[in-house]
Amino acid sequence: MQEKVEKLVQWLQTQIEETGVKGLLVGVSGGIDSSVVANLIKRAAPESSLGVMMPCNSNPEDLDHAKKVVEAAGLDNVTVDLTSTHDTMLKEIQTQLKNANALVEENQQLADANLRARLRMSTLYTVATNYNYLVVGTDNAAEWYTGYFTKFGDGGVDLVPLVHQTKGDVRELAKYLNVPKEVINKQPSAGLWEGQTDENEMGTSYAIIDQYLKGEEVPEKDKAIIEQMHNRTAHKREMAKAPEKF
Asked: pTM for the full model?
């Protein structure tokens, strides 16, 4: 773990040097992935790193965990509550769609969740511009491969240091970095709606996805789910498509 941390920290420092920015920031959700990144950026840029907490109709426990993470890491931090901004924007959009008799009710939960993620992305870049920092993402190998992230939301970042680390790797990194135990042991969730968990939504577990990514045998049902998710979300891992030049 020490070697991994040192390599990731060195890589982050190289990105700062090559881009000419002043530092790094990350959105701290109270989950394990962002907690690991919070610790990594603090080590990479001790005097120029920032954690941004962005509650948005969130579970209060998540904000409490996020605060414990930044305190334990000694990371400078700021909180931007997006609840009222989100509610105003979503209500206005839905009102206009209703007026046009075009609102699709069954799509509203996902639209709501994605709006939260994209508001957080906009917030991170606004804060990053203020400081001349890079936005560091938190997606791990399992999330990246399956596309379990919001396009231009939590996927809208400058750097993805954990993209080659399985969920199990991230958990071991968290232990090494002394992330608070309640964060390490909590059920993975994007906190996008009440009772939402990553694994229930995906239909498989991180442990099985990790096995698949390592080339190990997994049940056919899970293999089909993982490959379907990967294929369906290919567009999330690519730049915007353009026609051939003519």
From this structure: 0.94
